[in-house]
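Journal club prep — side note

Before the paper discussion, L.F. wants everyone to see what a predicted structure for a comparable chain looks like in C-alpha cell form. Sequence:
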Amino acid sequence: MKGKDIKEQEIMVRESLKKIKNKIMVMSGKGGVGKSTVAVCLAIDLSGRGYKTGILDVDIHGPNVPRMLGISGFLDVSPSQLLIPKTITVNLSAVSIEYLLADKDQAVIWRGPLKHSAIAQFIGQVAWGELDYLIIDSPPGTGDEPLSVAQLIPDAKGIIVTQPQEISLADVRKCITFCRQIEMEPIGIIENMSGIICPHCGKKFYIFKSGGGERTASAAGIPFLGTLSFDPAVVEAADEGRLLIYMSDEKRPYNQDFKKITDNVIKRIEETKVEPVSLEEIRKSKWIKIAIPLSKEKVAPLYDADRIVIYEVVDGDIRYLNTVEQEGHIRPSDIKNFQVNLIIVKDIKDKARYVLDRDRIGVVSNVPDLPPEKLIKEFLAGSLK
C-alpha cells in the first residue's frame, strides 16, 4: 500500500472512531478458553441495557461471531461505499471477515500487512454510526491482529479471558506483558469455565481447578472482573446461533454471573476514562518540567528523535537541565520516566498522545522549527496551543 493510501486509511479510521465512545478488545493467551463466547455475551448484555453496541470479529482465521449470533450472508454497501454492519437487534450490530467470504469454509491465508489493512477497513470503512461500545473479538495469542487493533485504536482497552488451569494462566501472563509493551490498558481478567454445576445433584465440580484467574490478576495488579461456570447450554446455544435467546433468560446462573461481570466492565471503563491535561493550567504553574525531542538540532516528531532535552521553568525562569541520548524508537513510557509534565513535539502518533494524556502529561504538537528555549517562551506566552 502506498504512503498516500495509508494516510487516507488512517484518516478514515480516525473519523470512524470519533463516533465510538468505548472500545474493548477481548483477548486470550490461548485458544479454547471461551474468548469469543465471552465477547459475544458481553456485546449482547451491553446492548440489552440500552447501549448502542457493535461487535467486530477480527479473528481472521477462525471467525466465530456470525455462527454464535445466527447471522449469515454478505455485508451490504451504502451509497457512500461504506460497509453496513449486520443488524442483530436495535442496539446490536456485527461485522466479521466471514461476511466477506463467498465460502465460509474458505481458509484465509494472509500475511501481516494484509491483515492490518483488512482490520483498518473494518474500522474505518464501516458505517458503524454512533456507538457506546465496540467489542472487538481478537484471535488468541499476541500476533498481528491484536497488534493492529492496538495501533489503529489508541484508546482500546483489553479484557483477558482465561481458564483457571496453570497452562492457560501462563499464556495470560504473556497477554499482560503484551498489553504493557504496546501500552494498552487491561481493564481486567475473566476466569471462564470455573467449575461446572451438576444438573442432577446441584453440586459444583472444578474440572479446571479454580481461583487461578483471580490470583494472576492480583499478582499483576490488574482488576479481576469475575468468574463464569462452564454451562453446556451455552455451548449448545453458541453452536446453534441462539446466544441472544439464551442471554435473555435472567434466571440462569451463568447469566446472573455475567451481569456482575458486565457491571464491573462498565465500572472499569468509567474509572479509566482519559481527559487531556489542561495546557492552560500547566502554563500557569509555578514549576514546569518539559521534554523536547530533537533531531539534527531541530524539534522532531516523538517517533523520529535522536535525543531529548529536558528543561524546567521555575516562576517563569527557564533552566536547561540535561540531554538524554536516545537509541531507536522513543516510547511514551520513556517520557514518563523523565518525570515531566509537558512535552513539546513536531508531530506525535495518536497512540502516543493517548498514553501521554493517560499519564497526565501535557502535549503541544505541530510546533514551528525554533530552538528549544524559544519554543518554551512561545508556550509560556500562549502562542503554542
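L.F.'s comment for the group: The longest helix spans residues 253-271. Keep this in mind when we get to the figures.
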